Structures are given as structure tokens and as C-alpha cells.
Amino acid sequence: MAQSMAWLFRTLLFTLSVVLCVSPALSSEERNAAWFQENTGSGDWFGLRSNLYDVGVDLLLLSVTDWAVNPIGGRDQDAAYGGIQYNQLTVDMDKLAGFDDLSFVVSGSYSFGNDLTVTSIDNQFNVMEAFNGNSIRLNLLYLEQGFFDGGFSAAVGRLSPGFDFATAQSFNFYGNGAVNYNILNILVNVPSFASAPFAEWGTIAKIKPAENYFFNVAAYNADPEVLQDGRSGIDFRLNPEDGVLYVGEAGYNSFDVDKSTPSYAGRYSFGVYYDSSDYERLDDPDRTVSGNSGVWGIVEQSVYREAERDDGQGLNLWAAFSVGFDQSINSFPFGGYVGTYYKGLFGNRPDDITSAAVYYGEFSRFIEDQSFEAVVEVNHRIAVAPWAFVMPNLQYIVNPGGGGLPNAVVTMLDVNLSF
Fold first, then answer.
1. What is the pLDDT of residue 309?
2. Where are the alpha helices (DSSP H) in 59-134?
3. What single string gives the DSSP state of each residue in 241-254?
């Protein structure tokens, strides 16, 4: 208990110091300092970064860290920290070598720390979205070719289904893993539906039949063993005979339209998946079921935009759901999610984002003594600079793990830095 309280004190002290540093005082002259106007925390590298970009080489260096503590509820009280350093190199082969509309992407990551969900709470909706295990791994590695002025593109290589499917712009504004970066129910039920920083062999086609409409289809190697931490992302086995994950999604997106006039932009998508692998039955591991399928849907809608603003300030609502059809093999077959966020709620903080959400998931009827779990999250993302934000976060977990444990409270600080 003493160790837990020490963690609590250090976490709260760190949170207080950061919040004080990035309080509204930063909207004064200090915020206008050159460093706070840079697009990245490491600047332009004396012009080298701009020169690389001009010839087609773009480098992303992203650091995300969570500090969290649960002073109430769960299995016991503790604190934890976890994070990821994610690095991505994107090469525009048109600029570099004259290959029209061809790009090459490779990324790698270093994940560290631990997860309060595992160490203390025993719930399903992991409370720290930044935690991704403990490993150094190769992530994405693919070529993408565009056609017809952006109307069609195809990629092949080491891909992550979660980068392109069951994701939404709104999901970026939350700290709980329920919707960050994807709908969690799908990832729980289908191990091959990998999300960052995990990747596997696959191919995807992206089609835009008309302005604002999109249709994506993909197929991936469905062997979850290649995703394990100990393999560091360099297990290049391709074994489709053991299973293939097929994914499709269609939708409408008007968020990319001209923002110079108030409008009610939105994004609506519906997706399906089928994994041809064999799955063990929850009630009898000696029996298997061939194939696993399900659907999901996501709605994002701007309901109010501040007049004469071109930076998206205003109120947005969103909702999502997922259904795994066969409860005998899906441990978390149903999820429903709703949320809202407001950009620029406080007049002197136009780039801050204030968010709230409720997450709900049901466990399979084939699992005894587990019914449902729900989480309420509220947070405020404080924009320090174009390359940095910190996000104090409060979560309330109802019925952790589906039953038997006290409701839990989690306070967390999410720090996101782009170098």
C-alpha cells in the first residue's frame, strides 16, 4: 500500500507540474516563442529535414506515454506507466525516383512499461491506450501505388488492418483503449485484426468511386503467432493455409471539404470481416469452429461549428458498435460506444479539445460469471504546441471484468510528443 501511495503522489505531482506548465499562461507571449510554433519538437535540423522532404523523404518521430493510477476499486490499488516510441519513414518515390504516385513506408517502434488493467484492475477495456507490450519491433513495410488521380490505390507488404479499418478521427481524442485506435471488441475477438504497432502480410485496395465516398477491401495473413512480442515483427512467414482475414468497409466522408464556412460535416462507415482460421470453442477448447465473422459501424457528425472559423472549432458527436456473430468463439461479442468532443471550448485555448465518452461491452453467454463492462471517460487535451499535447484523463470502470470486482476509478495523464 505504501508503494501504491508513493506512486499516487509522484503521479499527481507530475500531473500538476505539467498542467501548470501548459496552463492558459501559454497563450501569452511565451506561446509565441519560435519553439512553440514549430511543427516538430526537434525543428528542421538546420534545414536538413526540409531538404529531405523536398526530395520525397518524410520522417515521423512520435512518443506517447501514459501515467495512470487507480486509487479506488479493481483487484487492488496501484499505479503504472507505459508508452511507445513510434518512428515512420515515408518515401515519395515520384519525387525521389520518378515513379508516378508510388510510395514506400517502413516503421518501427519501442514499447515499454506496464498496463494498469493487467497489474491492478482486471478489466477488459484497457485503461492505458499507449501501452503495447514490451518490445522493439518492425511495424509497417509496404509499397502503395496510386491510380486515376487518387481514385484508386493498392498497397502490398507488411500492413496493419487497424490503420485502415474500424477507426475514426474521433477515436484519437481518448485515453482508454476501447476506441483508441480501433473498436476494441474486434481486436479481442479476432487476434489477426492487428492494430498499431503490429503488422502482418497483406494487401489492400482503396477505391473512391465519387467525391467523399470510399470503399476499401483487404486480405491479411491470419496467423496471430507472428504478432507476438518475442518475434519483434520480423517473423515473415506467410501461411494462408492456416487462415486469411478478409475485411471490407464502405462509407461517406465530408470532413475533408472546405472548412472556411460553417457546415455539418460527417463520416459514416460500415464494415465486415471474416477470418477463415479455426477458433476454439469457449465452452469446450477441444472443439473448434472454422471461421469467425462480424460487423461494425461508425458515425461521426459535426453538430455545431463556430462561425467564421476555418480550423474545425465546435461540437462533434460520434457513435460506434461492433458485433461478433458466434458467441461460442467470441469472448467479447458486442460493443457499443458513444462520445462527444468540443474543439476550442475555452476562448483563449482554441486548439484544446474537451471530450467525454461511454463504452459498453458484453461478454459471451458461454463465459460463466461475466456479464458486461462499462467505462465513462472525460478528458481535456491541452495543446502545448503543434508537436505536443498533454491530456489529463478521468475514467470510471463499472463492473470490471464483467463482475465480482468493485467499480474502479482511474486518473491518467497522456503525453504526446512529435519530434
1. 54
2. 93-97, 116
3. GG-EEEEEEEEEE-
User: What is the residue-wise DSSP string for 281-303?
Assistant: -SS-TTSEEEEEEEEEEEEEEEE
Find out whether 359 and 176 touch, Cβ atoms under 8 Å. Answer: yes
Chain-centroid distance of CA 95 in Å reads 30
Strands (E), 10-73: 57-72
CA distance 207 to 287: 39
3-state DSSP percent of the chain in helix, strand and coil, to 5 = 20, 45, 35
The span from the CA of 158 to the CA of 38, in Å, is 32
Mean pLDDT of the chain: 88
Adjacent-strand bridge partners of 145: 102, 154
Q: Name the pairing type of β-strands 57-72 and 135-147.
A: unpaired
Burial of 256 (0-12, 13-18, 19+ CB in 10 A): exposed
Q: Write out pLDDT tens, residues 227-240.
A: 776 677 787 878 88
* 255 neighbors 266 (Cβ within 8 angstroms): yes
CA–CA gap between residue 298 and residue 322 (Å, rounded): 9
**DSSP assignment of 366-379, as one string?**
TSTT--EEEEEEEE
Say which residue the cell 464502405 belongs to: 250
- Only one residue has cell 476494441, namely 184
Question: Which tens digits make up the pLDDT trace of 320-336?
Answer: 999 999 999 999 999 99
- d(C-alpha 97, C-alpha 91), whole Å: 10
Which of 308, 304, 273 lies closest to 291, judged by CA? 273
CA dist 211 and 41 (Å) reads: 35
* Residues 333 and 296: beta-carbon distance below 8 Å: no
The values of phi and psi at residue 260, to 5°, are -75, -15
pTM for the complete prediction?
Answer: 0.89
